[in-house]
Amino acid sequence: MKQKIFVSRAIFPEVLARLEQHFEVESNQEDRIYSADELLAKSQGKDGLFTTPSEPVTAALFAANPQLKAVCNMAVGYNNIDIAAATAAGVMATNTPDVLNETTADFGWALMMATARRITESEHFLRAGKWKKWSYDSFVGPDVHGATLGIIGMGRIGQAIARRSLGFDMNVLYHNRSRLAPELEARANNAQYVGKEELLKRADHVVLVLPYSKETHHTIGAAELALMKPTATLTNIARGGIVDDAALIEALSAGRIAAAGVDVFENEPAFKPAFLPLTNVVLTPHIASASTPTRLAMANCAADNLIAALSGQTPPNLLNKDVVKS
Length: 326
What we know:
There is one protein chain. The chain is an alpha/beta fold. The protein is built from 12 helices and 12 strands. The strands form 2 sheets. It has a 7-stranded parallel beta sheet with strand order 8-7-6-9-10-11-12, sandwiched between helices. Strands 2-1-3-4-5 form a 5-stranded parallel beta sheet. The chain starts with a strand and ends in a 17-residue tail after the last helix. The chain has helices at residues 13-22, 36-42, 59-64, 83-88, 101-116, 119-127, 156-164, 182-187, 196-202, 222-227, 245-254, 292-309, and strands at 4-7, 24-27, 48-51, 70-73, 92-94, 148-152, 171-175, 192-193, 205-208, 233-236, 259-262, 281-283.
């Protein structure tokens, strides 16, 4: 008999067909968003779960489903999974790193450029029929070329963003939990390792690319925003909760920083409506990895992890390496 899995969100039909070759599959192709209790119920009798960051995989779910062997997230982030509870229950948890690095870096760069050069604001102005004449100060903003780029979170995506800055002749600062090896700093446009406060004070454009955890919650709040130049921009492609959204809204409203580009939000998709009237913020709905090849690669990576885990192998992207296997 085939092992049973639940696919918690709609995925590419070809990936679903691939999973069906290996497992008895129940899937949520209607793409409902399940609550923690609903997901717990859907997990009954399942050997594996194919999840996304929108589903809370809780200690209660593991307790109610002792037969569960693997939870495989279709994302780099995994703060929706209680990893400690998974480990205690002997359940393997995985993510999908690497396959989205370049695409996410592309998007981070695009969002930062759109923010600095006021692309969204000026397009809305044009579409509203307000463009009547050229003016010397129409939608002027800071330059990107020759400016100082500050990256907080210098993992693979942060390094990919830094490499793109070479063509813009930028000076790169970064802050990370630990300093990169010299050869990686050199490849990242000779990035300079500095403290967070120094980075915020010196950077013209700050990009956030760090994972979410209790330790990184509100890495950027009112105090940090107050350190930034009034001409600086902030771009968040990390995770909701990295930035105190209320503090960011206040800083943007008061002109304490020039602009922000935000792809991720606290409590998304229920983001704070106070963002909407602001003209100096570019808002996107968590789409940094949204190219067709990359999303397909992410789905296949999650499928690879699930197939390996339920075949008695160690999945390639195991997060809890000290998991107690039954």
